[in-house]
Amino acid sequence: MNIQIKYINGIRFRRFIMNSSQRIFQNKDHLNDINVFPVADGDTGTNLAITMQNIVEGIRDFRQNSFELVIQRIARSALKGARGNSGAILAQFFQGIAEATRGMTRLTTVAFSRAVAKGAEQAVLAIAEPCEGTIITVMKDWAHHINQLAHKTPDFVELFKNSLHKARKSLLETTEKLPILKQAGVVDAGAAGFVNLLEGIVDFIEFGRLRIIKNEEKNSLSNELKQPFLNSLEKSQYRFCTECLLEGNNLNRNLIREALLGWGDSQVVAGSCEQIRIHLHTNQPEELFSRLSSFGTILETKVDDMWEQTELVKEKKILKKIGLVADSTCDLPEDLIKKYNIRIVPVTVQVDEQSFLDGIDISASEVIDFLENSSHRITTSQPPYQYFEEAYQKAGEENDTVISFHLPGRLSGTYQAACNAAQQSQYHEKIEVLDGKTSSIGLGIIVLQAARLIEEGVAVDQLREQIKHYIDRSKIFVSIPSLKYLIRSGRLDKLKGIIGTMIQLKPILSLNKEGDFEEVAKVVGLRRLTDKTLKLACQYAASVENPCFGIAHVQDIELAHWYEKELKARFPQAEVYISEGSPALSVHIGRGGSAIAVMGR
Asked: Which long-range contacts (CB under 8 A, 24 or more apart) does 210-218 make?
């Protein structure tokens, strides 16, 4: 029996868009590689991925039935987070759909066809000098085909699948419509990104998930840039890709367009009467911002040096793929691990003579059961060699550079095992193994920040510099509610542990610059333990710039949320991540144990 979808409401469209954002992220590097118009600055994929990620953040927890409410949220999020020429055009496309669907809870195929026609129309109007053979061409062709199909079928499954063929055909034709694309031997990158969006929707309809596409599928729509084209690249007339978000009352896009005349090219003015996203290539970004400030409040600005980006494209150095590997002690939440495609190598949890893989064969709750209900000896050890071997093999196949983060060599043989496996790998020249000098969520937030920089397109050398900065400006504070688990795992001398337990001593541990554990405080009583841990974290956070926090807990989510609340009260702008402690962490600190990591950015 064929599945049919007779209407789209807010919930369904939200799922469509969230899935399609993954497809764009999956193709980000390829879109960057074929980006030549309007300037060969190699960032279209990154810009579209950032735009879509902002949309996803805006609708992730927004579960409304009404199509009107969801598309309005999408349009606002797209406008706020739009990056680059294509991102601004896509934001205006969603704005047009939002304007066409006011008051509509659900859409038929006919209503949807009218909405996307309005979206395509608005996208064209946002551009000062629309050019055929770009994203707007594919938008228009797709919307026109949707309009023809909608009057023949009430089924969205048929509508999206059939119209995708038209969008792909239109994409292939961009090469012939724009001379620079023909010279380079590629299709338009922005248009390809729009087709990726549609592919993500069709995948979700057909399979309920995103398909992993192969390189040959990507290349079926476009080859890499021709070498003669790369050799002939010259600097653009205008040096700076300039963007800002303008907020005000009754903003007039036509007046703003007129005010931008003579200041540059590649002008896109997208948005509503309350917020407008402006994109322009110019040689005078600061003077431009000053002029625009007379229309309203400038909320954010972005200036990229396109001359520098073009040189990087010529040298084929722009946005090389960087893969991340970490051991399972990093305590990152599963959704972030999947989002950034971080490969996790599991450490071993040893229960007497039996070995378990951290987070795979054994959970934190199972570790706690062993600790509290048996007399087994439980400890941890480095990951099996084959897991490093497999992680480096896959990461090396897919990336130009692989950075592998691990808990300190002073605490475990994991770091040295990683170094040995990297040296033996056929991709050893690509792999860089780092001693994180910290553990648990402290290591996690360093890995997370590295992943976010990669997503933003930071070059490898700059990434290395930033990672060193993060490691140098990180500190973790681990609260130990009971000494018995440290004694049991062999981390604490038994006699000292017994004496400490008798007087209800509760230590707070940290790691020094060499990666060794050090006792930074000891108190009596659980309340003093949590208060002191929070105080130490806040004192360190006050000593660094723009701190962010990670909280790991062992089966005590209430404590984690209390920490989060107190940290937010003291550092309102700071990001705070919460994660359940790994089985490996649970072995040493037991139920109720926690860690607060602080990193200066």
From this structure: 210/19, 210/22, 210/23, 210/26, 212/26, 213/23, 213/26, 213/27, 218/27, 218/30
Question: pLDDT tens for residues 48-99?
Answer: 999 999 999 999 889 899 999 999 999 999 999 999 999 999 999 999 999 9
Long-range own/partner contacts, residues 4-8 (CB < 8 A, 24 or more apart): 4/155, 4/156, 4/157, 4/158, 5/155, 5/156, 5/157, 5/205, 6/108, 6/154, 6/155, 6/156, 7/106, 7/107, 7/108, 7/156, 8/67, 8/106, 8/107, 8/112, 8/156
| CATH number for the domain formed by residue range(s) 322-600 | 3.40.50.10170
Cα distance from N-terminal residue to C-terminal residue, the chain = 55
Of 378 and 178, the structure prediction assigns the larger pLDDT to 178
Residues of the chain with CATH 1.25.40.340: 8-212
Strand segments (E) across 132-274: 240-247, 265-271
Highest mean pLDDT of the ranges 1-5, 259-263, 455-459, 489-493: 259-263
Element (H, E) at 81: helix 67-81
Cβ–Cβ under 8 Å, residues 101 and 67: yes
Please name which of 164, 214, 147, 194 lies closest in space to residue 45, comparing C-alpha atoms. 194
Instruction: Band the pLDDT of 459: cuts 50, 70, 90.
Output: confident
Domain with CATH 3.40.50.10170 in the chain: 322-600
pLDDT value for 373: 79
Strand partners, 511: 517
Q: Which CATH homologous superfamily contains domain 8-212?
A: DhaL domain (1.25.40.340)
- Tokens representing residue 350 in the block: 């040893």
Assessment of whether the complete model's pTM goes beyond 0.85 = no
